């Protein structure tokens, strides 16, 4: 991105195709003819991350006059997606990306997205778009907990009410996956090959998880279609990485300060990574020409990132919420939280991560600490702590199971879980209320209140912890930590843990 010398702008330019030439000098913008773009990708879940990450890679290819037939059509399946659609359609689906490095900031307007489908009950417009032969990839960012899997087993949850609805009403589905199945059915009936399903969520084996959900749902209503999808469609695994905070009044004001009136700007850090399995049944853009990595070993990259970064986020965020630290950068600088983070990572997370080409786990941990410490990125502790029931089961507990399997230390990971249990009681240590921050918040609060007097009861949530309560080393440590947190406070316990010698 070009460096922008920010100057005061009394009348920022309202973003649209017709005003691109009027943007302040120094703001990069599309050099390609957006009217000549044709669609190749439908992306479901048009949040900030997609626009700062996957759409950016495609935009960079288009800046080289490549991939002009791979433009993005945005989509959503929930009523709240309509508000984002309205904002983006009003500005011709353009997005201002604002890069926030520790020592500079810059802006770029991207234009790889050309439409945003109407949000309708039954998802008719989405099914029609995905049924078109021009669409060769359907990508998703629908959050880690959005794939209808049982959190304890990772298997497809066919009992969920949304899934049952889509199995009974396959022509008027409620979910993104039901819409994908309906479109794949239409393509098969029309003699059109399938599209590639590309998950861009932080899940271990996200392509396999997406395949499991789509094929599992199809099998409930049309086993022959499920067999066709299983045999003919592609679901590559991928690893995505870029810290992208939510947009609020400060981000809107920053865009205006830079001279742009954008209703949905995106701020992001000065780091991106995208590692993808090269398994696309209907072709793909050459994203590797602009920095993506195609490899047969996505798993190693994925494990490094999910365990050190994503699990690390949970290490920081639950402690930060309890101590009223508003941002992840603040957590990374906190005198009690930072040593806790480093010790847990070094002793109980990094040992279960393998090196990837050009990067050891310890080097990656150093990189993550620098990224988390970037004060320009106002990534809120609340955002990172959201949906702990998916993030702890997906990011933290698999590490714990690996450690238990080889007799490794688990006291730090037990403390991570105890902090989450304390946070789910719904109040910070200063007495302020933690607003609901998980789809299962009411259940978690009730369990956390019970665990205040009976800590091990928290671990008896079988849908989260499975059989982990039966592992004495972990359960004993968890009980000790949770009692200490309630009695002595979070900061005292964090310092106690950081001072202790390594557990045997």
Automatic annotation (TrEMBL):
Pfam family, one: Mannitol_dh
InterPro entries in the cross-refs: 6-PGluconate_DH-like_C_sf, 6PGD_dom2, Mannitol_DH, Mannitol_DH/Oxidoreductase, Mannitol_DH_C, Mannitol_DH_N, NAD(P)-bd_dom_sf
Keyword Oxidoreductase attributed: yes
Gene3D superfamilies: N-(1-d-carboxylethyl)-l-norvaline Dehydrogenase, domain 2, NAD(P)-binding Rossmann-like Domain
Key words of the record: Oxidoreductase
Domain Mannitol dehydrogenase N-terminal stretches: 40-288
Keyword Iron appears in the UniProt entry: no
PANTHER family reported in the protein's UniProt record: MANNITOL DEHYDROGENASE 2-RELATED (PTHR43362:SF1), MANNITOL DEHYDROGENASE DSF1-RELATED (PTHR43362)
The protein's name in its UniProt record: Mannitol dehydrogenase family protein
The organism of origin for this protein: [Roseibacterium] beibuensis
């Amino acid at each position: 991105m070009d460096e922008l010398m920010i100057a005061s702008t009394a009348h920022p330019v309202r973003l649209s195709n017709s005003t691109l030439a009027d943007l302040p000098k120094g703001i990069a913008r599309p050099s390609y003819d957006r009217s000549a773009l044709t669609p190749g990708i439908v992306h479901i879940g048009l949040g900030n991350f997609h626009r700062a990450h996957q759409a950016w890679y495609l935009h960079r290819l288009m800046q080289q006059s490549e991939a002009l037939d791979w433009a993005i059509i945005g989509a959503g399946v929930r009523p709240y997606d309509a508000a984002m659609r309205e904002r983006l359609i009003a500005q011709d689906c353009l997005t201002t990306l604002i890069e926030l490095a520790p020592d500079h900031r810059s802006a770029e307007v991207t234009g790889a997205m050309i439409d945003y489908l109407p949000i309708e009950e039954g998802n008719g417009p989405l099914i029609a778009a995905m049924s078109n032969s021009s669409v060769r990839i359907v990508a998703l960012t629908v959050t880690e907990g959005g794939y209808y899997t049982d959190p304890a087993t990772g298997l497809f949850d066919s009992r969920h009410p949304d899934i049952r609805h889509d199995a009974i009403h396959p022509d008027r589905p409620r979910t993104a996956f039901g819409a994908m199945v309906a479109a794949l059915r239409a393509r098969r009936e029309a003699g059109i090959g399938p599209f590639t399903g590309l998950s861009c969520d932080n899940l271990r084996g996200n392509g396999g998880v997406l395949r499991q959900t789509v094929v599992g749902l199809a099998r409930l209503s049309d086993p022959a279609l499920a067999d066709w999808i299983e045999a003919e469609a592609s679901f590559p695994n991928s690893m995505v990485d870029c810290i992208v905070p939510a947009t609020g009044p400060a981000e809107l004001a920053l865009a205006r300060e830079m001279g742009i009136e954008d209703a949905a700007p995106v701020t992001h850090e000065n780091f991106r990574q995208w590692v993808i399995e090269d398994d696309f049944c209907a072709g793909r853009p050459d994203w590797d020409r602009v920095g993506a990595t195609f490899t047969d070993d996505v798993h190693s990259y994925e494990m490094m990132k999910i365990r050190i970064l994503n699990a690390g986020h949970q290490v920081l965020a639950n402690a930060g919420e309890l101590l009223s630290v508003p941002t992840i950068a603040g957590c990374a600088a906190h005198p009690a939280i930072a040593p806790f983070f480093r010790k847990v990572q070094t002793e109980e997370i990094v040992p279960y991560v393998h090196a990837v080409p050009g990067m050891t786990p310890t080097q990656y941990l150093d990189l993550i600490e620098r990224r988390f410490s970037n004060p320009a990125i106002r990534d809120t502790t609340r955002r990172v702590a959201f949906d702990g029931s998916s993030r702890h089961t997906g990011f933290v507990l698999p590490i714990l199971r690996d450690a238990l399997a080889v007799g490794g230390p688990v006291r730090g990971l037990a403390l991570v879980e105890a902090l989450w249990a304390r946070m789910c009681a719904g109040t910070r240590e200063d007495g302020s209320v933690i607003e609901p921050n998980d789809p299962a918040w009411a259940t978690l609060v009730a369990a956390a209140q019970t665990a205040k007097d009976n800590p091990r009861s928290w671990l008896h949530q079988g849908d989260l912890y499975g059989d982990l309560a039966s592992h004495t080393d972990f359960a004993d440590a968890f009980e000790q930590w949770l009692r200490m947190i309630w009695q002595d406070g979070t900061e005292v316990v964090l310092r106690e843990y950081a001072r202790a010698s390594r557990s045997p």
